[in-house]
């Protein structure tokens, strides 16, 4: 029997964790974090206790209690004995947290199949935010001291303290156990998004990941639909985030709004758009160029662009943007001191960008406001004090509208900052990363699966002829 078990993404947006079993082969489709379940128990400063390994996650139903899946150091800490690896691979659709957020709990010897774009993004998060997507930092392990008697904690700066995840970048069809898998790139609000066609013993299972048609890469999604239909799939696991929406704005509309808004501005243009959405960055880069402005990105974005360039991925070129270097710690970057002293204020990964020709500080931005379009997200609002935007400055809101109380409070904080600097010209322009109801319907009609499973949606009932899915309950494919 070929089966699918949905451990996340059921009646919720994201948190996809789908187990596919065929004969001896067992694979996961994504291993994401459920934002809704997580928000029931946790908030910014309230999270799982690391010393409980995966215990807290299991207790609260954030991840399933399954043998042979989780990392050894965490299991050992919980008093669970050694477990054999039970799974052949994880197919990662893309590197949004609701799809990869719990990978750091998974044993690193289960191969992760993903796109080059997803790999670059995870490298960025690991390097810049202490993530463990691709490199597990071994915990709870003591080793003999190098000098003297006794033990010390194993440190992730030592080679034995790191276990590299087995990562396979896939572009062409590949095999996992008994299964032939075809990766199919799709358009989404994150570079490197893919769908998969998995040829099982009872027909092909197509998994959409997250997709849309209204971004800069519509063609990719069209090709995915065409190719999926050729498989005459037994099952289609389709995302349905916006099944209840028929909004039709496109990324092109965002560009039109932004470039119009930037016209005749004598001061700074400030924009908040998703950090890793390089298509949105392209939109802002083009709008900036239209008005002879330089797009200014932050250090994490610079890291990502650099990684993309080195990996030959499509994205704005680092040389085409300026990189904003915030004053950190002692604030030496704007003082006349030796570069080595300046580096002391920054993480190692940041230092390379500080000395590059296209780096700028608050002083340059403050002096020549009409020459720049500056990315400033929620956490960068504090930079406004150093940058001192003039009254005639404008602000573009290019992120999703608030949909919960926390986001509403954050939005008020942004408004307070803008009001403090007398910035009154504000516009909103954003499009979602997900196909609307009509597009979803047309996609399903074109693919014509024998069985349809709706995930990543709060409204599975709005799909026609859809299988009823229960979290954790095995469903037959054939
Ligand atoms: Zn998602
Ligand atoms: Zn996504």
UniProtKB/TrEMBL annotation:
Annotated ranges, domain Metallo-beta-lactamase: 14-258
CDD domains per UniProt: metallo-hydrolase-like_MBL-fold
InterPro entries registered for this protein in UniProt: Metallo-B-lactamas, RibonucZ/Hydroxyglut_hydro, RMMBL
SUPFAM superfamilies: Metallo-hydrolase/oxidoreductase
Pfam families: Lactamase_B (PF00753), RMMBL (PF07521)
PANTHER family (UniProt xref): RIBONUCLEASE J
The protein's name: Metallo-beta-lactamase domain-containing protein
């Amino acid at each position: 029997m070929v089966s699918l078990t949905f451990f996340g993404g059921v009646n919720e947006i994201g948190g996809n964790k789908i187990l596919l079993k065929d004969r001896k082969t067992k694979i996961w489709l994504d291993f994401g974090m459920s934002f809704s379940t997580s928000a029931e128990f946790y908030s910014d400063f309230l999270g799982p206790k690391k010393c409980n390994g995966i215990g807290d996650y299991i207790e609260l139903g954030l991840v399933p209690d399954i043998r042979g899946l989780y990392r050894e150091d965490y299991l050992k800490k919980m008093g669970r004995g050694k477990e054999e690896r039970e799974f052949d691979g994880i197919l990662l659709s893309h590197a949004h947290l609701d799809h990869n957020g719990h990978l750091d709990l998974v044993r690193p010897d289960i191969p992760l199949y993903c796109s080059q774009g997803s790999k670059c993004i995870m490298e960025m998060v690991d390097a810049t935010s202490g993530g463990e997507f691709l490199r597990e930092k071994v915990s709870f392990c003591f080793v003999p001291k190098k000098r003297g008697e006794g033990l010390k904690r194993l440190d992730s700066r030592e080679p034995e303290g790191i276990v590299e995840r087995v990562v396979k970048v896939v572009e062409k069809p590949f095999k996992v156990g008994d299964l032939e898998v075809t990766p199919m790139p799709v358009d989404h609000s994150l570079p490197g998004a893919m769908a998969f066609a998995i040829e099982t013993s009872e027909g092909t299972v197509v998994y959409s990941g997250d997709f849309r048609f209204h971004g800069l890469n519509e063609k990719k999604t069209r090709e995915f639909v065409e190719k999926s239909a050729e498989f005459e799939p037994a099952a289609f696991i389709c995302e349905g985030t916006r099944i209840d929406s028929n909004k039709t704005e496109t990324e092109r509309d965002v560009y039109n709004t932004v470039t119009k808004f930037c016209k005749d501005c004598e001061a700074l243009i400030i924009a908040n758009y998703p950090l890793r959405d390089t298509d949105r960055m392209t939109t802002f880069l083009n709008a900036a160029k239209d008005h002879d402005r330089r797009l200014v990105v932050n250090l994490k974005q610079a890291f990502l662009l650099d990684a993309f360039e080195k990996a030959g991925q499509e994205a704005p070129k680092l040389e085409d943007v300026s990189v904003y270097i915030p004053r950190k710690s002692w604030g030496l970057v704007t003082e006349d001191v030796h570069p080595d002293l300046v580096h002391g204020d920054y993480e190692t990964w940041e230092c390379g960008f500080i000395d590059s020709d296209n780096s700028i500080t608050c002083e340059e931005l403050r002096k020549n406001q009409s020459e720049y379009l500056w990315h400033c997200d929620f956490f960068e609002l504090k930079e406004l004090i150093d940058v001192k935007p003039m009254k005639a400055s404008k602000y573009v809101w290019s992120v999703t509208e608030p949909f919960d109380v926390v986001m509403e409070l954050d939005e008020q904080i942004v408004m307070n900052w803008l009001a403090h600097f007398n910035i009154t010209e504000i516009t909103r322009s954003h499009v979602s990363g997900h196909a609307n109801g009509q597009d979803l319907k047309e996609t399903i009609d074109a693919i014509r699966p024998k069985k349809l499973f709706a995930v990543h949606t709060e409204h599975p009932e709005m799909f026609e002829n859809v299988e009823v899915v229960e979290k954790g309950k095995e469903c037959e494919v054939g």
